[in-house]
């Protein structure tokens, strides 16, 4: 891949130049590394946010490259993930236990520059058969995602270089080139499996203004979750099952689309503690443009301002660009003339201990809303783990979600949602043949302190019930409705 080769050469040249300059310049102190890695447990699939601290400072003059690099910071992450899916009747059930660990290094800063690298490996400790079931012709949907979707038989040799970057730090802002994590409304880590989605990118974060921030850049490659490989942008689409074409039959875009990369940008404005608005734009070259905005308001209703009514509004517009990936519509990712409107709203009540919200999402009638699932999860207010609305049109969903802060260490979430989707046989508006469903979500997180500081646990239980005709067809039932799912996750950061 020319982009990867070009980056490798550029990275090696710049990193060598920086380190040689460190050794040559006398009397220049090295600035210790900050813990610049993005926490591994993030997103709406988790209620826990990792706390990080700065490395100890030093005024010692560097005497060699070796001495300089020893002032950097090592960090580690061990993770275990158990999943169990119970399907209705005689349909197959699935289970899997994955165990993995990773080690990361961030160099100290020198004239604002620093480098970072790290990797993670995974083992399949114990699992049922996750491949194709002879009875239904289907396979595991969730458990296989703990490992490698592209090679379900690989149980031992699962690993990848996750971070490899050159970063420039200026005051509160950064510019990063290479393998890294990116957080946005739809392109994000989607931390619901063993490893997150990562990107190859030039990424900027500008935080010099008090109330206004900017982030954005150019993405030229992906390391999708549930895979152990890195891909160009056009190759990354299709590692997750491709669904059905709007014209009939399985989608044929995998391996047939053309796209040079993804440009995206975000401006967030927060004039006060109670108001924040954010605007995102995604340009996937030759595929689509997608603009998404979100505004959240908290209206205090108590004298101490700790209790508030919360209002939120999200709106998005997507349109195909170029030929949608391929001049042959049957092999394109998106229909060439596709246009989609969507919106989501929230009203809630928040106290220091509880936050309850009633949420609603509407995807307009017409073309399907498409955003590669390999790139991230949708962040609609109605979002609930283990299911998505992407790939549908003429869809409505309502959810009632309550977050509970039992104490500083123990948090919980209770949610219930109902989604109305087009009929499963409506290929033009239901890409993944997902029937209308109801969903119950129970989740809790516990963060340890003291001798076990760095350890956190998460338990997730969901049940999805059938709300529409499934025509007694396994493809419309298994891993989709009339099923329950349990996840148990342990993370240890050090």
Automatic annotation (TrEMBL):
Cross-referenced SUPFAM superfamilies: Porins (SSF56935)
Protein name as annotated: OprD family porin
Species assigned in the record: Pontibacter mangrovi
Gene3D superfamilies listed in its UniProt record: Porin (2.40.160.10)
Tree of life domain: Bacteria
Database matches in InterPro entries: OM_porin_bac, Porin_dom_sf
Signal peptide (residue range): 1-17
Record's keyword terms, sorted: Signal, Transport
Matches recorded under Pfam families: OprD (PF03573)
The keyword Signal is annotated on this UniProt entry: yes
GO CC annotation, single: membrane
Family: Belongs to the outer membrane porin (Opr) (TC 1.B.25) family.
